[in-house]
Write a structure and sequence with these properties.
It contains four helices and 33 strands. With 654 residues, the protein is mainly beta. The termini are far apart.
Length: 654
C-alpha cells in the first residue's frame, strides 16, 4: 500500500510539471493514439517485425496464436496447462510480454499470456520487438515484447463476418462493426470457437493416449469473446478505450508419454475460464513542447481447475478456484525541445490472487506490486544519426503470501542505449544495448500446482544484458528489403526447475541458475516482384547455454531449438484467385524425462497452404490446410502440437 501511495504521489507531481507548462492547443489533432512506445522525432527505436491488417487477414486465424506462429525468432508452445505461450529467441515464456493497446495481457499470478485468448477479429496491427524493450514496457519484458493494436479510426461504416468449419468438429464465427461519427469511432466485435478435439500426427510421442482415432484425449474446447472500443479525437488530443471479455471451457491434454502406473501425470480440465480486460489511453497535447500519455488497465481472471484421478476423466480428485484482479497505470511525459526530447515514464501494477480449495475449504490470498520509474533522452547527433539513452528503477514486493514465508522486496536498475544511423536512402544501421530485470511471479515463488511443487521463497530476479545490431537495406528498384540482425544476450539468475526429494516424495522446485548466455543471427528478405507475387524468407539461428555451477556442471537449457527458417509466398493466380504457401522448419531441441535424463526432440517441417477465391470485393471463400506434411511438432515431451487439419470458410464485408 505504501508503494501504491508513493506511485500516486509521483503521478500527481509529473502531472503538475506537465500542466505548469502553458496549456495550448496543437495546430493539428493527432491522427492516431500511440499507446506504448511512441516513435518521436529524435527517438531511436530498435528494429521491429510488423504485421499489418493485410498480412493478418491472409492467415485466416481465429486467435492471435495463428497470426504470430509464422514469424522468425518467435516460438509458440502449448504447455501442460493448455496455454499457447510466447518464446522470443528461445527465451522462457515469462521473459517476454504481450500488450494489447498498451495493457499487458499476462495474468499477474502466473506472468504468462495465453495467446489463444486474444481474438483475431479485433487486431489491426502487430509489432514484434526481440530485444531489450523501451522503458514504457516496464519490468519483465527482458527479451522483447509483442505489441498488439486494435482498430481506432474508420472513415465509413464497415462490417465484416466470417464463418468456418474444419477437422474434428472445428467451428468458428466472428463479426465486427465499426461506426464512425464526427469526432468518434466505435467498434463492436464478437467471436465463437469450438472443437471436439485436436488432431495428432502420430501416436509415437504419446503412447499412453487412449482415443487417438477421435483426436487427442481431453482436448475439446469452447470459447466465446465480446469486444467493444471507442476512439475520440479533439483538438487537445485523443482518447481510446476498450473492454474485452473471454469466456470458455477448456480440456487439457495429459503428458501421455508417461505411463500413469509409473509416473505422475496430471489429468486436468478447466470447466470455467473467464478473462475480462479493460484499458483506457489518453494522449494529451499539454503545450507546444509537451504531451502526456496515460494508459490504465484493469484485468479480472477467474478459472476452475478440476484434477481427475485417471485418463477416463470420471472421478475428480481435487478442485481449485483461482480469482485474479490486476490494476495498472503508465504515465509518459514527453518534452520536445529544439535539439532533443526528454521523456519521463512512471508505471505501477498491483495484483491480487485468491485460490480456494474445495476439499479443505481453505482460501489463500497473494499480492504483488511492481513499480517502475524511468527517464530517457533522445538526441539528434546530426541529420542522419539519432541516439536515445534511458535509465529506470524497478521494484517488486509481495505483501501477502498466502500464509507462507515472506520474500524480501526486490529491486534493480535498468538502462539502455539505441542508435539509428541512416547511412543513405537505402541503408539503415541500428545498434541497441540494454539491461532489464524480470522479477519472479507469485506463482513461481509460492505456487504449489495442486501439491506438485516444493516452494523456494529465496528466488532472486533475473537480469538480462542484450546487444543487437540491425542492418537494413531497402532497395526500391528491385524491390527487396533485407534485414540482418546479429545479437547477444547474457542472463544472470536464470530461473529453472529441478526435482527434489522430500519425505520419500519427489517434488518440482524452481531455483536460480548461476546464469546463461546466448548469441545468434536473424535474417529476413522480403520481395514484392509484382502485384501478383510477393514472398519472404526468414532465418533465425541461435546458440544458448547455461553457465557452469559451483560443481563445474553445466545444466541443460531445455526446449530451445537452435534453427528456424520460414518461407512465405502469396501468389495471385488470376484476378479473383489467390494462393498462400507457408513452409517452416524448426530444428530439434532437448527436454528432460521423468527419470531426469536428457532426451532429444526431433525437428519438424510444416507446410501450410491456403487458397481464397473472391466472388466479389465483399464476398470471399477460402480453404486452408495446416501441417499438410503431418509433421510431428514437439516443443515439449508428451505435448506435440497439432497434425494435419483442414478448414473451409466464408468472409463477407459490408
Amino acid at each position: 500500500m505504501i508503494l501504491a501511495h508513493n506511485f500516486i504521489k509521483m503521478n500527481v507531481v509529473l502531472c503538475l510539471i506537465a500542466l505548469n507548462v502553458s496549456f495550448s492547443v496543437a495546430d493539428e489533432a493527432l491522427e492516431e493514439i500511440i499507446v506504448t512506445a511512441s516513435a518521436d522525432k529524435y527517438r531511436a527505436l530498435q528494429t521491429s517485425t510488423d504485421l499489418d491488417s493485410t498480412t493478418i487477414n491472409s492467415r485466416a486465424a481465429s486467435n492471435f496464436t495463428g497470426i504470430i506462429r509464422i514469424v522468425s525468432g518467435v516460438g509458440i508452445r502449448t504447455n501442460s496447462r493448455g496455454e499457447a505461450v510466447l518464446r522470443l529467441r528461445g527465451s522462457e515464456e515469462r521473459q517476454s510480454q504481450v500488450f494489447l493497446d498498451g495493457a499487458p495481457m499476462s495474468v499477474a499470478w502466473d506472468g504468462r499470456a495465453d495467446l489463444n485468448l486474444i481474438p483475431s477479429v479485433i487486431i489491426s496491427h502487430v509489432s514484434i520487438l526481440k530485444s531489450a524493450a523501451p522503458i514504457e514496457f516496464g519490468a519483465g519484458a527482458v527479451f522483447g515484447v509483442v505489441d498488439i493494436s486494435t482498430f481506432s479510426r474508420a472513415d465509413n461504416f464497415t462490417a465484416k463476418m466470417r464463418g468456418e468449419f474444419g477437422s474434428l468438429g472445428h467451428q468458428f464465427f466472428e463479426a465486427l462493426v465499426r461506426i464512425p461519427s464526427e469526432n468518434s469511432n466505435f467498434t463492436f466485435a464478437a467471436s465463437y470457437r469450438s472443437r471436439s478435439g485436436e488432431v495428432v500426427a502420430s501416436s509415437k510421442p504419446i503412447p499412453f493416449d487412449i482415443l487417438l482415432e477421435k483426436g487427442r484425449t481431453n482436448t475439446a474446447l469452447t470459447n466465446k469473446t465480446i469486444f467493444a472500443s471507442f476512439h475520440h479525437q479533439e483538438e487537445w488530443g485523443s482518447l481510446k478505450g476498450f473492454i474485452l471479455h473471454v469466456k470458455g471451457v477448456k480440456e487439457i491434454a495429459a503428458a501421455a508419454h508417461i505411463d500413469p502406473a509409473k509416473g505422475k501425470v496430471r489429468f486436468w480440465r478447466y470447466p470455467k475460464q473467464a478473462l475480462t480486460q479493460v484499458a483506457v489511453n489518453a494522449d494529451i497535447d499539454v503545450s507546444d513542447i509537451s504531451d502526456l500519455k496515460l494508459t490504465s488497465w484493469l484485468q479480472y481472471y477467474n478459472q476452475q481447475i478440476d484434477a481427475y484421478k485417471d485418463i477416463t476423466y470420471q472421478d475428480i480428485k481435487k478442485t481449485q478456484n483461482d480469482q485474479d484482479k490486476t490494476f495498472g497505470m503508465r504515465l509518459t511525459l514527453n518534452n520536445h525541445f529544439d535539439d532533443f526530447t526528454l521523456r519521463f515514464v512512471n508505471s505501477y501494477q498491483g495484483s491480487e490472487h485468491r485460490q480456494v480449495f474445495d476439499h479443505s475449504g481453505g482460501k489463500e490470498v497473494f499480492n504483488q506490486q511492481v513499480f517502475s520509474l524511468g527517464m530517457e533522452i533522445d538526441i539528434q547527433v546530426n541529420e542522419d544519426v539519432n541516439l536515445s539513452i534511458s535509465s529506470a528503477y524497478d521494484h517488486s514486493s509481495m505483501p501477502l503470501t498466502g500464509g507462507r514465508k515472506a520474500q524480501n522486496a526486490l529491486s534493480n536498475w535498468a538502462a539502455s542505449l539505441t542508435l539509428n544511423w541512416q547511412v543513405n536512402d537505402e541503408f539503415l544501421a541500428q545498434i541497441s544495448a540494454g539491461k532489464r530485470t524480470r522479477f519472479p511471479t507469485m506463482r513461481e515463488t509460492y505456487g504449489t500446482a495442486l501439491g506438485q511443487f516444493l516452494l523456494n521463497p529465496d528466488l532472486k530476479a533475473e537480469t538480462v544484458f542484450s546487444l543487437d545490431l540491425s542492418l537494413i537495406w531497402s532497395l526500391e528498384e528491385l524491390p527487396i528489403k533485407v534485414i540482418i540482425t546479429p545479437w547477444f544476450s547474457s542472463l544472470k539468475g536464470t530461473l529453472s526447475r529441478r526435482r527434489v526429494k522430500q519425505n520419500g516424495q519427489r517434488f518440482r522446485q524452481r531455483y536460480n541458475l548461476k546464469g546463461s548466455e546466448g548469441y545468434g543471427i536473424e535474417t529476413s528478405l522480403e520481395w514484392k516482384a509484382s502485384d501478383s507475387f510477393k514472398a519472404s524468407v526468414q532465418l533465425a539461428w541461435q546458440n544458448l547455454s547455461a553457465f557452469k555451477d559451483e560443481r563445474g556442471f553445466r545444466p541443460s537449457l531445455l526446449q530451445r531449438p537452435s534453427l528456424q527458417w520460414l518461407i512465405d509466398a502469396d501468389i495471385n493466380i488470376v484476378s479473383q484467385l489467390n494462393v498462400k504457401i507457408e513452409l517452416s522448419h524448426i530444428s530439434g531441441a532437448k527436454d528432460e524425462n521423468e527419470q531426469e535424463k536428457t532426451i532429444d526432440l526431433g525437428s519438424s517441417l510444416e507446410l501450410n497452404l491456403m487458397t481464397y477465391y473472391s466472388l466479389s470485393k465483399d464476398f470471399e471463400i477460402y480453404l486452408r490446410a495446416d501441417n499438410i506434411s503431418n509433421s510431428i511438432i514437439l516443443p515439449q515431451l508428451g505435448l506435440p502440437q497439432e497434425g494435419r487439419r483442414f478448414r473451409a470458410g466464408v468472409r463477407v464485408n459490408f
